[in-house]
Amino acid sequence: MLPQIRHPAKGIIEDDRTPTLIFLTVCTAARRPWLANPHVHGTLVQVWRSATHWEVGPYILMPDHLHLFAKPGCGSATFDRWIQYWKSMFTKRIGNRNLRWQSGGMHHRIRPWEGAEAKRDYMMMNPVRAGLVARPEDWPFRGEIFHNDEWW
Q: What domains lie within the chain, and their CATH numbers?
């Protein structure tokens, strides 16, 4: 179970000396299990492809939360504003007001001395730990939209 954070740190501090890579967790409202669905998955991918102020790298959808990595794209939207934007676009496109998000999200900038691999492995093992599949590659609600070798 993910911790409930009422007021996560706002903003992402960018540093020109190192690539910016953010790990994000977003939950559904009341942790309702509606995310692991082909239509939801396809809609999120469409929205993320068009919301390019930040680019989504590897991601995974669990029934009641998602994890993703993101890096700056084209534009100047803050990370928090970008989250609000794609949630709003998703809600409009999906057309179902019962599919609601928890406000905000929990994000963490991967610092130069940290390895993103551990967070990526944690993220990809989620469906195995939850007993949904035997192997991470069997989980259909995952992917990578914008590939970037420098992250790993």
A: 22-151 (3.30.70.1290)
